[in-house]
Every structure is written in structure tokens, then in C-alpha cells.
């Protein structure tokens, strides 16, 4: 099983939420007449659908968070178009993600497990009612299912993003010494996934990204479930490596 496949299938939501997803909700909530001053503007931010994500940012990086709110508010106050505000939000949140990426290898494993379980929960949310949405999320991430308005996303997607972001921030302080996953770890995961009941056909669906196949959603869920369940020593190394590699994108 290739590293590229695992990164794409197991760490999808984080890429979008610290990029376009945050920007979409900012524009929805903050460019109207409901934000007459800086204080109200920030209140709208923290009460929006992504309020928990911004609260995590504020808690771990208060100065950086405050500077971002100032910059976005200045654009809104100046009457800049939505596209400009969105671009600024995307640039700043992507910079946070990438700045945290290298340290992600030290994230506490309990948070890594929670993140990947949450990723599987997103897929299950869509599996019955919208299997193609599940498939697109599994293959391409939350940005592919959100469109320009992140307010349409269910709470389970937002919570997935919050958990991923908090894991990145926690890694900064955790100081866990952990070697990145090597080829032997990836090979061990393929064997573990099979031991958890994944068939060769299901693995092929995922590795070939056959999103139009009716079984793709279920296969993706099974893969992420296996990733969350893989025990030490290989499991923590693989989960942390995938989070790191995904955040670097």
C-alpha cells in the first residue's frame, strides 16, 4: 500500500478545514451588516459553525489568532470583496497548518486515534444517505463536499477538523519522541488491515481510488478504522506520519 494512498484516504478533512473551509464560513458570517465593530466581528467568528476551530487557535496561539482577526476585520471594514477576505483567510490558516506540520510527528497518540476515528465518523454520516459524498470526502477531503459555503457542512465534519487542528497544536508541547513510519510500517499496516477483515478487492478499490464503485465508501471506512485501531509500536508512528504529511500539503 503506497504512502500517497494512505495520506489521501486517512487525513483528508484537515487539508480543507485549515484552508478554504474556514474562509468560506468567515465570508458567510462576517461580511454582512452584523459586525459593526471589531468586538462584534470576533464574536461572530466564535459563534459561527467553525467557532470551536477558532477557539482552539485562540487557546494555543492567542497572538497569531488576534492578528488574523485584525487583518480580516480590516478587509471587511474597508469593503473589500468576499474573494479578497476569503483569500486572506485561506492564506493565514494554511500557513498555520504548514507551520505545525513538521512537529506533528510528536502528537499524543490518543489525539491521533480520536482524529482518525472522527474521520471515519464523517464517512459513516454520509454512507447511507449520500454514498457518493462519502466517496468524495474519502478521496478528496471536505473542500470537495463543501462548496463555497461551509455552513452547509454537518457538525461531524467541523468536529473532525477541530480534533485534527488540536492534535497539531498539542504536538508542539507534547515532546513525544517518535520515529516516522518507514516502509516496514506501511507494509505492516497492509497486513493489519487484512487481519481486520479487509479483502484484497477492498484494498484495491482504495489504492486505485475507484470512487465510482459502490463499495468505495465502505472500503475507505474499513481502512480508516484499521488505521485508528493499529496497535503500538507501528500504529502511533503511522498515524503521526500521516498527520504530518497531510499538514505539509
Write up this protein:
- This protein is mostly helical.
- The protein contains 14 helices and no strands.
- It has helices spanning 3-10, 12-30, 38-47, 51-60, 62-77, 82-101, 109-127, 131-140, 143-146, 155-174, 183-195, 200-207, 216-229, 234-247.
- Helix 5 (62-77) runs antiparallel to helix 6, helix 7 packs across helix 14 (234-247) and helix 8 crosses helix 13 (216-229).
Please describe the topology of this protein.
Elements: H1 3-10, H2 12-30, H3 38-47, H4 51-60, H5 62-77, H6 82-101, H7 109-127, H8 131-140, H9 143-146, H10 155-174, H11 183-195, H12 200-207, H13 216-229, H14 234-247
Helix pairs in contact: 1-14, 2-6, 2-10, 4-5, 4-10, 5-6, 6-14, 7-8, 7-10, 7-13, 7-14, 8-13, 11-14, 12-13
Query: Helix segment count?
Result: 14
Strand content: under 5%
Largest sheet: none
Helix-strand makeup class: mainly alpha
* β-strand number: 0
Low-pLDDT stretches are: 5-31
SSE string, helices as H and strands as E: HHHHHHHHHHHHHH
- Helical content, roughly? over 70%
Radius of gyration: 18 Å
User: Separation of termini?
Assistant: 20 Å
Mean pLDDT: 81
Overall shape: it is: globular
Amino acid at each position: 500500500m503506497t504512502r500517497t494512498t494512505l495520506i489521501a484516504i486517512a487525513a483528508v478533512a484537515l487539508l480543507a478545514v485549515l484552508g478554504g473551509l474556514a474562509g468560506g464560513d468567515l465570508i458567510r458570517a462576517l461580511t454582512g451588516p452584523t459586525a459593526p465593530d471589531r468586538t462584534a466581528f470576533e464574536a461572530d467568528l466564535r459563534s459561527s459553525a467553525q467557532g470551536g476551530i477558532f477557539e482552539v487557535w485562540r487557546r494555543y496561539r492567542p497572538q497569531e489568532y488576534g492578528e488574523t482577526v485584525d487583518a480580516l476585520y480590516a478587509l471587511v471594514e474597508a469593503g473589500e470583496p468576499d474573494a479578497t477576505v476569503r483569500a486572506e483567510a485561506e492564506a493565514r490558516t494554511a500557513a498555520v497548518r504548514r507551520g505545525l506540520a513538521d512537529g506533528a510527528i510528536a502528537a499524543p497518540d490518543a489525539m491521533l486515534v480520536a482524529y482518525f476515528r472522527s474521520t471515519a465518523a464523517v464517512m459513516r454520516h454520509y454512507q447511507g444517505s449520500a454514498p457518493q459524498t462519502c466517496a468524495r470526502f474519502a478521496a478528496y477531503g471536505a473542500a470537495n463536499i463543501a462548496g463555497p459555503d461551509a455552513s452547509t457542512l454537518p457538525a461531524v465534519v467541523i468536529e473532525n477538523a477541530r480534533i485534527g487542528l488540536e492534535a497539531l497544536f498539542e504536538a508542539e508541547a507534547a515532546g513525544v519522541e517518535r520515529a516516522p513510519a518507514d516502509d516496514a510500517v506501511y507494509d505492516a499496516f497492509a497486513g493489519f488491515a487484512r487481519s481486520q477483515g479487509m479483502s484484497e478487492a477492498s484494498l484495491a478499490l482504495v489504492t486505485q481510488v475507484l470512487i465510482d464503485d459502490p463499495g468505495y465508501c465502505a472500503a475507505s471506512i474499513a481502512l480508516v478504522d484499521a488505521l485508528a485501531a493499529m496497535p503500538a509500536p507501528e500504529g502511533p508512528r503511522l498515524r503521526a506520519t500521516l498527520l504530518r504529511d497531510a499538514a505539509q500539503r
